[in-house]
Amino acid sequence: MNARRAIAGIFAPARHGINSLSHDPSQFQQMRGIRVKVRNGNLEQALAVMQRVMQSSGIERLLKQEQTHHLKNSEKRILARKNLERKIRSQDHARKLQMILVKKVRGL
Q1: Per the confidence metrics, is the pTM higher than 0.85?
Q2: What is the rounded CA–CA span in Å between residue 64 and residue 43?
């Protein structure tokens, strides 16, 4: 049920959109969600593009986090370890990038 709410929230049109009654241009908002053009009736290609866009925007990760089934303690430990490894790897990359930028700024 939570996944349905998440999907409905992601693909719902924005309130006070272009079709609203107010004519103030500052209140116009774009439609929320992902739009993919189907070219020449090629639905398979459009679905592949949509999947790539969802992965890159993080929507797929949000939907996977909305789990409704029970997780065993061993699964929780595995997920916690993976999250910790990802966090450490991200910090290492950020540290390396910062060192490279500092060297570049100092002209070394």
Answers
A1: no
A2: 24
